[in-house]
């Protein structure tokens, strides 16, 4: 099923104008600062917010100039920032509410066990913790048997542990159903996304693969203080003595601390924050840093006073380094220059 | 404690009036309260002021206008012709009409407050869960407004039972038709029958206390009071 839309509308003083297509399964992160219109766009797609334009989903027309399909007829599931469980119903009642109206396209028991809410079914929704409530809300959204999931900052109120757990669930679900996920949290973007739409002032200003958008120096992501590059690699050997896992990226070996050998689907993804990468002209012989790799400067951009971001080519992948403008000048960092990148911290996932 | 047959009849007329009035008001006020709680339209403040007028207007003023309106030369008289009568004044139907006006704010306000307290997000979520507007109203709005309905029912009944001024103006005191307990009590006092007056007054007092006690107790248990 593919989604294509071209929408415009006015909400308060904010004008929104957006068009995009969404093809296959997987998570598309709608990323942007607060007030950029992300939630409004999601509400327009759900039919909860009036707007002009066209929405096409597969061979269904959700909205044209003449017709608007109401929200209860659009085959989607949704989560809001707050769990928004129906307060007069139990957990079980919340799930049944959807099943009764949408028909159980997905098996109730398997959704319940996937969301790990077996023990909560009889509880009143008022007694749930934030994490529990969002798991119930996720299960309820799934029981709508959605062909598209719209998630509006569903994890923003949760602590780190609960967040990771739900992010994992959402990633798993996205194998079966396309997900549009609104957030302004870079960590969530890094964890979830293969595709990203960047939104600013009511417009989608860029669309593309997450790792490409993250490394684009003319985009907003590389200019952030927490700018991060994503690299894809293959799992290599595990060093038992030092508890280090090798990951090969463009024929270079990165060593990651790991208590035990890493297993999982390949390619694995590495996250490297721009501020954890420093540059030098010669490869240092006696550094404590494990990951030192030859790179070629692809591009350079000043960001803020005295700071620069350097885009580095590692094979056909891109790494970012955030350095001072003085270092950039003294090291003679210019496109094409061959340097060594010292990577202080690498995270998997 | 023994009440006379006449007093029992007056109590029965009062209860019947209160129940009929409250049931009709629930039906009328549900859409009205929803509309007032959810929309912002020009003229709404004036409309709300008019609907709340019975709260402050002396009942005799209201009764006077109702008497004119329900009488042979008012719209009530015109309506009464269809039923073969001259006037709706001094009839049970007339009393019901008067009570509807008089008790309306006591049913309307709790419902309006309860509806206004329902988060719009709950309705949005119900919509994307597959519920149409009418379905949402019955499956979500009414259950979530149940405290408001409880308040509306008890206040509507209690307030109609306590009616006096309006009834005196438009109902008179026809036994079994328009003589309610409060009017019967007044007549006992007028006639100097203080013993009967005491008994009837005690019954009304205890009934009122019991109803309000039930209301507050239930609201305390639910931990969310919705009072006008």
TrEMBL record, chain A:
Domain ABC transporter: 1-226
Keywords: ATP-binding, Cell inner membrane, Cell membrane, Membrane, Molybdenum, Nucleotide-binding, Translocase, Transport
Keyword Nucleotide-binding among UniProt keywords: yes
Domain of life, source organism: Bacteria
Gene3D superfamilies for this protein: 2.40.50.100, P-loop containing nucleotide triphosphate hydrolases (3.40.50.300)
Residues annotated as domain Mop: 286-349
Signal peptide residues on this chain, from the entry's feature table: none
GO molecular function: ATP binding
Name of the protein in question: Molybdate ABC transporter ATP-binding protein
Species of provenance: Alcanivorax jadensis T9
From TrEMBL, chain B:
Membrane topology category: Multi-pass membrane protein
Domain of life: Bacteria
Localization terms from the record: Cell inner membrane; Cell membrane
Transmembrane feature ranges: 12-37, 49-68, 88-108, 152-176, 196-216
Record-annotated ABC transmembrane type-1 domain positions: 11-216
Record keywords, A-Z: Cell inner membrane, Cell membrane, Membrane, Molybdenum, Transmembrane, Transmembrane helix, Transport
Chief localization: membrane
Xref: PANTHER family: MOLYBDENUM TRANSPORT SYSTEM PERMEASE, MOLYBDENUM TRANSPORT SYSTEM PERMEASE PROTEIN MODB
Family stated for the protein in its record: Belongs to the binding-protein-dependent transport system permease family. CysTW subfamily.
Role: Part of the binding-protein-dependent transport system for molybdenum; probably responsible for the translocation of the substrate across the membrane.
Name the record gives this protein: Molybdenum transport system permease
Organism expressing this protein natively: Alcanivorax jadensis T9
Lineage: Bacteria, Pseudomonadati, Pseudomonadota, Gammaproteobacteria, Oceanospirillales
């Amino acid at each position: 099923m593919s989604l294509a839309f071209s929408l415009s509308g006015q909400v308060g003083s904010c004008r929104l104008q957006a068009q995009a297509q969404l093809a296959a399964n997987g998570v598309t992160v709608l990323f942007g600062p607060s007030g950029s219109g992300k939630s409004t766009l999601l509400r327009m797609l759900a039919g909860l917010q009036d707007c002009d334009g066209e929405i096409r989903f597969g061979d269904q027309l959700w909205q044209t100039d003449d017709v608007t399909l109401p929200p209860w007829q659009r085959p989607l599931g949704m989560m809001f920032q707050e769990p928004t469980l129906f307060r007069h119903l139990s957990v079980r009642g919340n799930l049944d509410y959807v099943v009764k109206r949408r028909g159980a396209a997905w098996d109730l028991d398997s959704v319940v066990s996937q969301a790990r809410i077996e023990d909560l079914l009889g509880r009143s929704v008022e007694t749930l913790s934030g994490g529990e409530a969002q798991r119930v809300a996720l299960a309820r959204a799934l029981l709508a048997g959605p062909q598209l999931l719209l998630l509006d900052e569903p994890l923003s109120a949760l602590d780190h542990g609960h967040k990771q757990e739900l992010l994992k669930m959402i990633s798993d679900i996205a194998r079966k159903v396309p997900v549009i996920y609104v957030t302004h949290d870079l960590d969530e973007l890094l964890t979830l996304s293969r595709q990203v739409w960047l939104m600013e002032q009511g417009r989608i200003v860029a669309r593309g693969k997450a790792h490409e958008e993250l490394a684009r120096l003319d985009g907003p992501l590389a200019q952030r203080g927490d700018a991060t590059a994503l690299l894809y690699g293959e799992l290599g050997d595990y060093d038992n003595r030092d508890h280090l896992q090798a990951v090969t990226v463009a024929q270079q070996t990165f060593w990651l601390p790991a208590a035990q050998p890493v297993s999982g689907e390949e390619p694995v993804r590495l996250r490297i924050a721009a501020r954890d990468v420093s540059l030098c002209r010669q490869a240092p012989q006696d550094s404590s840093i494990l990951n030192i790799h030859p790179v070629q400067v692809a591009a350079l951009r000043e960001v803020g006073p005295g700071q620069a971001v350097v885009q580095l080519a590692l094979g056909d992948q891109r790494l970012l380094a955030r350095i001072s403008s003085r270092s950039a000048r003294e090291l003679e960092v210019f496109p094409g220059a061959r340097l060594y990148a010292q990577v202080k911290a690498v995270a998997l996932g | 404690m023994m009440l006379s047959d006449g007093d029992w009849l007056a109590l029965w007329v009062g209860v019947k009036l209160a129940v009929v009035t409250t049931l009709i008001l629930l039906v009328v006020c549900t859409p009205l309260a929803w509309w007032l709680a959810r929309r912002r339209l020009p003229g709404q403040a004036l409309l709300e002021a008019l609907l709340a007028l019975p709260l402050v207007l002396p009942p005799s003023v209201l009764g006077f206008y109702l008497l004119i309106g329900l009488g042979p030369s008012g719209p009530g008289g015109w309506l009464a012709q269809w039923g073969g009568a001259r006037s709706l004044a001094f009839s049970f139907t007339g009393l019901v009409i008067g009570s509807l006006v008089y008790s309306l704010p006591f049913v309307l306000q709790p419902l309006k407050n309860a509806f206004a307290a329902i988060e719009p997000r709950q309705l949005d979520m119900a919509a994307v869960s597959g519920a149409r507007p009418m379905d949402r109203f019955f499956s979500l709005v009414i259950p979530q407004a149940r405290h408001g309905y409880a308040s509306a029912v008890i206040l509507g009944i209690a307030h109609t039972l306590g009616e006096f001024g309006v009834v005196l103006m438009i109902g008179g005191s026809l036994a079994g038709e328009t003589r309610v307990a409060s009017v019967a009590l007044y007549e006992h006092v007028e006639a100097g029958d203080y013993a009967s007056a005491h008994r009837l007054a005690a019954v009304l007092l205890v009934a009122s206390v019991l109803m309000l006690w039930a209301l507050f107790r239930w609201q305390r248990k639910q931990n969310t009071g919705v009072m006008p």
